[in-house]
Amino acid sequence: MSKARYRRRRLAALLVGLVLFVGLGFGVRVLLYDVGLFEVEAVEVTGVATVPQADVIAAAAVPAGIPLAAVDTEAVATRVAALPPVESVYVGRSWPHTVTVTVTERIPVATVSTSQGPALVDRSGVVYRGAPAPGVPRLTTTPRTGDPATLAAVAVLTSLSDSLRAQVETAGASVVAPGAPGQVTLRLADGKEIRWGTPDRAEEKVVVLAALLTQPGTVYDVTSPDLPTVRR
């Protein structure tokens, strides 16, 4: 076979392949977008506990009847993530007719009072609207998302064991100098005061405090876990 003939056959094969590829792409496009075989019929929500599914579906705002392939999943996720109790969202497609919305809710570690009413603070220090949660400590620090005092108080509360956290009635923090970590003070339901100090060395402080609380006293200071004190 001459080189010229080989090149002609190769070019013909490439052209046939290109036509088939374009045809296949056009066919897929027609199936997904034009003939109505894969239209949105439902929005499925998972992962919610306190957020009503109806609120998530309303925020998602996915029009019924549009091609499933045409749903802007990032835009849907952005709209759902704007709900205050939502920490993160994943939006996907479940063929042939369903948009799936997987929600991770914020976990409240403290309740606070704001000028707009009651609110919650999550484990990342984000303040969001919400009714006081039973058994969740009250934050006495003026709450601001991401400020050092709020972050310090939240860090300490999340470091506590479940049994100790259940005894905490209030948590407060103060910042003595710009850029310095917050100094945290806890008050238990029985009136005992715990001077925690900064959030660092939390594991050591938890162990030391557990031992201190077996002793009678009113103020338990674990600011320095190497030199803890009890005041009666």
Please characterize this protein's 3D structure.
The protein is α/β, with parallel strands linked by helices. Among the domains are: 42-105, Ubiquitin-like (UB roll), CATH 3.10.20; 134-231, Cell division protein FtsQ/DivIB (Rossmann fold). Helices cover 33% and strands 28% of the residues. The chain has helices spanning 3-34, 53-60, 73-81, 148-159, 162-165, 202-212; strands spanning 42-46, 86-94, 98-105, 108-114, 117-122, 127-129, 138-139, 168-174, 183-188, 193-197, 219-221, 229-231. A six-stranded mixed beta sheet has the order 7-8-9-10-11-12, with helices on one face. Strand 2 (86-94) and strand 3 form a beta hairpin. Helix 2 packs across helix 3 (73-81). Mean pLDDT is 85; it is low at 15-35.
Provide the succession of SSEs: HEHHEEEEEEHHEEEHEE
Number of strands: 12
The largest pleated sheet is described as: 6 strands, mixed
Instruction: Report the portion of residues in β strands.
Output: 25-35%
Sheet with the most strands: spatial strand order: 7-8-9-10-11-12
The Cα radius of gyration reads: 29 Å
Helix content: 25-40%
CATH topology name of the domain at 134-231? Rossmann fold
List unreliable stretches of 5+ residues. Answer: 15-35
Structural class: alpha/beta
CATH homologous superfamily label of the domain at 134-231:
Cell division protein FtsQ/DivIB
- How many distinct helices? 6
Span between termini: 104 Å
CATH architecture level-2 label of the domain at 134-231? 3-Layer(aba) Sandwich
Choose one word for the global shape: elongated
CATH class of the domain at 134-231: Alpha Beta
Mean pLDDT: 85
